[in-house]
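ok trying this again, last paste got cut off
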Amino acid sequence: MSENEALHIEYADEAELLNEFRSYMSDPDTRDKAANYLLESLIDETVLGLVFEIHHAHKTGSGSALEGQPEDCKPYTIVDLPDVDVFGSSTGKKAIDCNCPNCNRIVAASRFAPHLEKCMGMGRNSSRIASRRIANTRDGGNYFGADEDDEDDADWSGEKRKKKIAPVRTNGSKKNGKTS
């Protein structure tokens, strides 16, 4: 009979298990042995788990991330220069520029998406402009057979439409023509 088979005991029911447990716990020597075994098992598991975590952190290099960087031992100095704060960092806002991958122009970050859309010929206005260019290059005529009366359309020219300002009524009448 192996050691595992000797430790594995099956009980007929729960009452039989409880009776055997009570008989072991009534003896002070058995109770002390069980308490010491339980304490030693908990300490062994805790220490072994901690050792494995430290070993894993050391092997993977993540231990330095947990420890962090050592703090500077030098005292803080106050900087008194124009355009910098007391720590020496620049206070002026720096404009972030992006390099267009299509035309290699430097464009402000806030204008990069619209520039890229136009530069690559994508978007609503760009596709219309490209269609018009293709139409004009073929025999000098209109490709779609439509009239060129849309020349002053805001979408074609890329200009924004101006809002119409309602005329100011000076005679005291309302818009619908009734007076109050």
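PB: full thing came through this time. The mean pLDDT is 75.
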